[in-house]
Write a structure and sequence with these properties.
There is one protein chain. The chain is globular. The longest helix has 13 residues, at 296-308. By secondary structure, the protein is an alpha/beta fold. Strands 3, 4, 5, 8, 9, 16 and 17 form a seven-stranded mixed beta sheet that branches. A six-stranded parallel beta sheet has the order 12-11-10-13-14-15, sandwiched between helices. A two-stranded antiparallel ribbon has the order 1-2. 49% of the residues are buried. The protein is built from twelve helices and 17 strands. The model has no long low-confidence stretch (mean pLDDT 96).
Length: 348
């Protein structure tokens, strides 16, 4: 089969690899109908997250059609269509029962193989899904597949970011970074009743989408961000800052913009060795800081229900649609923000 494989930082190839086979009786094999390139994939692409084996199939955002199922699979038959979260989960352990499916004791992240162990990704014609009964979610017939695909990662992560921030009705919320997760965090904050959402980025096409989704755009490097936030909050600062960049600079800016007693929620991967914010700074503003990998599986039915009800507007999220053969170029333009790229859809 054809798949997008990692070989070294900035070196991906679409190449022929063996088709996956059932390895456990709880597995299914999906024919991948749609996939996507995620901002988290760029950490591997750039080499900021190291350790991936050469030849690993990339990708953790995908949906598809069941073509084979193990003998112990109960919920999935050949021909059923399903959307996957970015990691597997058993549905039964301590973490899963408390909604923390991303920290399941048996969890594996799609597209991460290190030292010969791990799970191949979904930027391929076929993918193996372990623990299929607990991991996969049925693809609703009345939701556009492109939008349902987002439920497995960025949409659920955005909603989790807003909930982790404790957004309350009437709050003023700042979203730092308007990539796909940031845009979904805008939607998540508004879904929770935020009175105003201020979206900060430097990329015009991202800010255009943020405004379409209901935020007020502020331009990083042009606008006086502190003054704008103070003016919107009677001088207090934001009730909640959703920091969706994952850099020391973003952490420092989040601290600057949040009010006394406010909350910073950071759903993304930070690769720096130390916090940009000291314990003393958190103490001096009575802040709450919450972070961690989103339990996407625990959110998927909920966000798919929002999509079915047409209460979320995800139009325009995908700027580019490509084949697997074109995926290496898709990584390049997504990484370098060329061609007004906001997110890349892959159709095997």
């Amino acid at each position: 089969m054809r798949a997008v494989a990692f070989h070294a930082p900035f070196s991906l190839r679409c190449e022929s690899v063996p088709e996956p086979r059932l390895q456990a009786q709880t597995d299914v094999i999906l024919r991948v109908d749609l996939g996507a390139i995620c901002g988290s994939d760029l950490h591997v692409f750039r080499g900021t997250e190291a350790g991936l084996d050469a030849g690993t199939v990339m990708g953790h955002e995908f949906l598809g059609t069941v073509v084979a199922a193990g003998m112990e699979v109960r919920n999935w038959k050949s021909g059923a269509r399903a959307v996957s979260p970015f990691s597997t989960s058993c549905g039964q352990c301590f973490a899963c029962q408390r909604g923390l499916t991303s920290r399941c004791g048996e969890s594996q992240l799609f597209g991460w193989v290190q030292a010969g162990r791990g799970l191949q990704g979904g930027q391929a014609e076929y993918v193996r899904v372990p623990l299929a009964d607990a991991t996969l979610v049925a693809l609703p017939d009345d939701v556009p597949a492109e939008q349902a695909l987002l439920a497995g990662d960025v949409l659920s992560t955005g909603f989790h970011c807003a909930e982790n921030g404790g957004v309350q009705r009437g709050d003023t919320v700042v979203v730092l970074g308007c990539g796909p997760v940031g845009l979904c965090a805008v939607l998540g904050a508004l879904d929770l009743g935020a009175g105003a959402v201020l979206a900060i980025d430097s990329i015009p096409e991202r800010l255009e989408l943020a405004e379409r989704y209901g935020a007020r755009a502020l331009v990083l490097g042009r606008d006086d961000l502190s003054a704008a936030v103070r003016a919107s909050t009677d001088g207090r600062g934001a009730d909640v800052v959703l920091e969706v960049v994952g850099s020391p600079q973003a952490s420092a800016l989040a601290y600057e913009l949040v009010r006394l007693g406010g909350t910073i929620s950071a759903p993304g991967v930070h690769n720096e060795a130390h916090f940009a914010i000291t314990p003393g700074q958190l103490y001096d503003k009575n802040l709450t800081y919450r972070a961690g990998r989103a339990p996407a599986r625990a959110y998927m039915e909920r966000v798919l229900a929002r999509l079915r009800a047409r209460t979320l507007d995800l139009a325009g999220m995908f700027s580019h649609r490509m084949t697997l053969e074109e995926a290496p170029r898709g990584y390049e333009i997504f990484d370098q923000k060329k061609e007004r790229c906001t997110k890349v859809l892959l159709a095997p």
